[in-house]
Amino acid sequence: MTTRSPDAEPLLTPAEVAALFRVDPKTVTRWAKAGKLSSIRTLGGHRRYRESEVRALLAGIPQQRLDED
């Protein structure tokens, strides 16, 4: 059993990040390799992403305009 401290920041999987951005999980991995998004490696070698950083990046993406034809 693992215990998390109350101030531990939530981490997201590549699939969770991909769902937020509506892209493939491989794209998220490419972003991390390119330095656009920092990742944390688990003991098993899997990537995890800080939720606050992902949300900040998501907030910076311009939303599609509904009135575009």
UniProtKB/TrEMBL annotation:
Location of the Helix-turn-helix domain: 11-59
Top-level division of the source organism's lineage: Bacteria
Gene: bldC
Organism: Kineosporia babensis
Pfam families (alphabetical): HTH_17
Alphabetized InterPro entries for the sequence: BldC-like, DNA-bd_dom_put_sf, HTH_17, SinI_DNA-bd
MF terms (GO), sorted A to Z: DNA binding
Protein's UniProt name: Developmental transcriptional regulator BldC
NCBIfam families cross-referenced by the UniProt entry: excise (TIGR01764), HTH_BldC (NF033787)
